[in-house]
């Protein structure tokens, strides 16, 4: 099997009928890029920038961030790199920010909520990203967006920093796509309205599932409710993909679900454009996708979306995608 995968390392990812889908990787540091390229990644679909801020006692400087972002972009050449802005707070603490303890950290003051209030922190990261943009194919993504106002506000801060840099005579790419994570159900429900204003969506199923099912992603007692293939989740995902396509935008996924062998045929059926996963999942996923007909899977879409239970979905897709 390993040999079969290795042969596909330098090939692009195509379905049985020859349609391309993009397989990208999730990374946390510039050191992870080697692994992405060695496993045949076509891009970075999620660069979690939290690690730059963690395990130290002060905020990273603009220069430190510029170096990290530039390094990833240069190593990836012209392949796309989606950098997610700071997703801290909640369970991921930064001692030096001295955030108050909360009853429900996952529903609390984190990510874009914190960045919009502490725009001093946010602006430093955006400047570093904008300056690094000339070194590759950068896309910027905002985490934990709940409302259209939040997206607009984040985008306008980005535009302000870009204008300032240009005024200062700095080079900034004018090709940077700006998108958002869909990990709060509210945004999946009205994805159509968001799709008019974003350049892309990336579905964060790790959080989207816990918020939709009201089941903490870390709590063993309720893990039976953490159901990626639940029709409620699939209908939300479908809503996001349809909304993106109606506006000529692309929709990806960077939650764990994107690399899962049962989820992959379901997501192909729904028309997902980009799958971002851990680097080691890329070649197995490429091998699987090669054997699947997207057209055939798409013909099951309405039937899948109208199913009532996870169990039904799993039994159906296992049979259709030869997973039995
Ligand atoms: C997600 O929520 O699916 C996601 C990719 O983000 P994280 O796992 O970092 O919360
Ligand atoms: Mg998340």
From TrEMBL:
Q: What is this protein called?
A: Phosphoenolpyruvate-protein phosphotransferase
* Entry similarity comment: Belongs to the PEP-utilizing enzyme family.
Listed under catalytic activity are: L-histidyl-[protein] + phosphoenolpyruvate = N(pros)-phospho-L-histidyl-[protein] + pyruvate
UniProt key word Cytoplasm: yes
- Cofactor(s) the protein requires to work: Mg(2+)
Any one GO MF term held by the record is: phosphoenolpyruvate-protein phosphotransferase activity
Instruction: Please give the first and last residues shown and the length of the full protein.
Output: 249 to 572 of 572
Q: Which residues form the PEP-utilising enzyme C-terminal domain?
A: 2-292
Could you tell me the keywords of this UniProt record? Answer: Cytoplasm, Kinase, Magnesium, Metal-binding, Phosphotransferase system, Sugar transport, Transferase, Transport
Query: Where does it localize?
Result: Cytoplasm
Purpose of the protein: General (non sugar-specific) component of the phosphoenolpyruvate-dependent sugar phosphotransferase system (sugar PTS). This major carbohydrate active-transport system catalyzes the phosphorylation of incoming sugar substrates concomitantly with their translocation across the cell membrane. Enzyme I transfers the phosphoryl group from phosphoenolpyruvate (PEP) to the phosphoryl carrier protein (HPr).
Recorded E.C. number(s)?
2.7.3.9
